[in-house]
Amino acid sequence: MNKNIENIADWVAYKFVLEGIDRVFVYPGGTIAPLINACIKFNIKIECLNNEQGSGYAALAYSRINHRPQVVMVTSGPGVTNVISPLADAYYDSTPLIVITGQIGTGDLTSRLEVRQRGFQETPTVDITKSIAKRSVCLLTADEVFSEVPLAFDLTMDGRMGPCVLDFPMDIQRTEIDSYDLPKSRELNVFGDQGNDEVIIQDEMLDTISSATKPVILLGHGSLSVTNYEILEEIAESMDALVVSSFLGLGSFSSSNNRFLGYIGHTGHQIANLAVAECDLLLVLGSRLDIRQTGTEVDHFVKNGKVISVNNDSTELDNPRVNIDWPINMDINIFCEALVRNIKDNKYNLDTSWKKMIDEKKSMRLDDIPKKDSKFIQPREFLDTLSLVMEKQETILVTGVGCHQHWAARHLPFEPKTNTFLTSAGHGTMGYDIPSSIGAAMASPEKRVVCIVGDGSALMNIQELAYLKNSDLDIKIIVFNNSRLGIVSQFQLITWGVDPTTGDFRPQDFKSIAEGFGINAEKIVKNSEIKEKIEWLWRQKGPALLDVMIDPSADVRPMLLAGQKMDEMWTG
Asked: Given 336, 364, 392, which residue is the final one in a domain?
């Protein structure tokens, strides 16, 4: 028995060490204090942001960059309820995360079951979290700890990844140990760590691939788990296919590759949506084809073609929104290796006139066309200048949620393993931005983190500027300040003609706010200042913020609205 392990909390902390956890993200409180102190005992770094949501998002980003589950620990009651948003983000965007929550003692938990609350800051954590976690369990005995903690580390990475919740009564954490074996060290799980079983590709499917004249490959979030990104390029070359991605699939294929058209869906690139609408074969790798990708008119999605969908979550294939001709429940790495072996020598029949039309429309850049002679800064013009700087350095792009999120996704560069994209997609949480930037910078200090955030989203977790200043991380924050909650305002104006509560705010002075936290900041109000101020931002050492006064009337255009087919996007 390791002499340092005196109680259950020590055992758990030692288990963290064996799982490669070098730090934990926390917000403190009484019922989680034993575990926090045990982590200190085992030299695990404690990252304590200024809100449970901040710590949760930092842990989530750390996991996505490092490709391993990360741990966030919060106290009971409000600690639990404040960490729900990061938990939901991890669940819906398939991120491995272990959420450990403090809980009142087992004596109170197991008695007076009829009363509303049996202890200070008690909440029914398992009931609250079980529908947004792969597993949620309250650990009522030492034996449950010894079985459930290792299970959580396995389960969070198994199949379609996601979070697990361990609710930890305080008295269980403090239970003394004298006779239990220590956990054994084991090989760490990482994204894409899968077997290489021989896979047989159906002849009928291969015939369909080889006869396709308008083939398109759709790379979803699952494509980021591909261990060899070159295999995706090889498949595209062998099929002579065009390539699109889902919103979260950005970064799985080089945006500078001539085959790549952008991402599809509600706010996707118009040319990407058009290609999917007209293709005669769509190969889907790791995408759930949700409503934000397909639109509402599902009967017209790839109406004149076949769909092959590869997904490691059988429930998505068993309950599809659109017609799938070949649902394949398989890890993408295994499928891609098998597909390459079967198609590398085949000849294909691309419709060259169709490809030429697509290329011509792509070159027209029909997304977010800047207004001519406007005195206001146009989003695309700013991002075009920023992209020239980002292309010269490895970067991680983090966004909040809103118009800025989609403008950035449309117009900034993405390269596998070089220019990474982190954002909140399925849950769509404003405030994801600043704390996730912190976690990303901790996980990958050799890369520059660029955080693009709207004025509304920035205010959700603005308190984390204090942590950012103290940590002195190399994060460049760009606030798109348009005095409105743009994406919702746009929806309200299109639908009802008015935008109550979302439009025409008094602009916040983010330069002064940042300086109040001790962070270097500048403001930009003129188009002529764009290049100069971006260069200023890029020269700064440590954290810096640029407050960009964006045209208040700028919308995300075009956009796929309810009732529209993929090739019928609203243009304003």
From this structure: 364
Domain membership of residue 570 (yes or no) is no
The answer to whether 320 and 167 have CB atoms below 8 angstroms apart is no
Regarding whether 545 and 402 lie in a shared domain, the answer is yes
CATH number assigned to the domain comprising residue 433: 3.40.50.970
Eight-class DSSP state of 530: H
User: Taking the alpha carbons of 408, 267, 219, 158 in that order, is the dihedral positive or negative?
Assistant: positive
pLDDT per residue as tens digits for the range 331-340? 999 999 999 8
Nearest Cα neighbor of 467 from 54, 53, 3, 1 is 54
- Output b/e per residue, 429-446; b: 16+ Cβ within 10 A: bbbbbbbbbbbbbbbbee
The answer as to whether 346 is a domain residue is yes
Of the pLDDT bands very low, low, confident and very high (cuts 50, 70, 90), residue 196 is: very low
Residue range of the domain that includes 409: 379-549
Q: Are residues 346 and 383 in the same domain?
A: no
Q: Are strands 97-103 and 163-169 parallel, antiparallel or unpaired?
A: parallel
Residue closest to 275 by CA, chosen among 387, 354, 332, 340 = 354
**Under 8 Å CB-to-CB from 531, ≥6 apart: which residues?**
385
* pLDDT digits 0-9 by tens, 240-254: 999 999 999 999 999
CA distance 466 to 554: 31
